[in-house]
């Protein structure tokens, strides 16, 4: 089947409501943090975007600093949108973010109104779009009043440059505060993007805040930078991220404790008839606040493999108990 040839592309995808909103997100979203910038091969990046869309993955997650080089993932996405997907714009959710370092000087990062609005304008130019569907504040700013950041997000929605707004990497208290500031302006905080996986459940309190405020959750790094694919169970492959120059995953991250948990998770996945990666994605999606998980990929085949997570999204009480014991470091 060629790209975009299927009228039944949505049949294999599960769509889930994002918090208390009218928006449905695909259970799997394609993240463009790696492998879509100017250092990547364009034909492979294009293939992944079109393969994802052809399988019902309608949400593409970007940020102003994604690449490398920073900004070039948005340029790649804009190029594919213009050449291949422009007629499908109303079937696609595009999200981008600002808050991390992007350009030199006092206005190139964090959460000021100056930075957020300027950054979104730059992102729209790079992607050759009139608007994004979701715009995130990428990280909390300890020095800018939250009221100013909320004012910027409000202005962005009212300007029509974003349909919805979200936050990322906020703690539970900050999430509640931002939600209530936006409520005063009749703006709904749609979504919170957080790190969450079988190997990192530190954001449990944020999930509680999402439930209270009617905000949808979306998880990044649901496979713990690839650890939950099982690729490190036999050692660190020479071509793996942990053996490269990543500051987010190094050889020091591959501890015996982490590997022991990974082996035990894999045993449960085997019993369920899933790969470890499929179960890891399914487990995150089984959290009721999670509308979607963001997957990364190096090639189109990896995207197709992740679709297997959708075949078994429920867990028995016994499976949840055993998983909780592993997460808590207890023996079975």
Describe this entry's structure for a reader:
This protein is α/β, with parallel strands linked by helices. β7, α5 and β8 form a beta-alpha-beta unit. It has one domain: TIM Barrel. α3 packs parallel to α4, α4 crosses α5 and α5 runs parallel beside α6. Helix content is 37%, strand content 15%. It is globular, with a radius of gyration of 19 Å. An eight-stranded parallel barrel has the order 3-4-5-6-7-8-9-10, surrounded by six helices. A two-stranded antiparallel sheet has the order 1-2. It has ten helices and ten strands.
Radius of gyration: 19 Å
Q: Per CATH, which architecture?
A: Alpha-Beta Barrel
How does the overall form come out from the CA principal axes? globular
**Terminus-to-terminus distance:** 46 Å
Spans with pLDDT under 50 lasting ≥5 residues? Answer: none
What structural category do the secondary elements indicate? alpha/beta
By DSSP (H or I, 4+ residues per run), the number of helices equals 10
SSE succession: EEEHEHEHEHEHEHEHHEHH
CATH third-tier fold name: TIM Barrel
So, the CATH homologous superfamily? NADP-dependent oxidoreductase domain
Total number of β-strand segments?
10
Helix content: 25-40%
Strand order of the largest sheet: 3-4-5-6-7-8-9-10
Mean pLDDT: 93
Largest sheet composition: 8 strands, parallel, barrel
The total domain count is 1
Write down the CATH class. Alpha Beta
Percent in strands: 15-25%
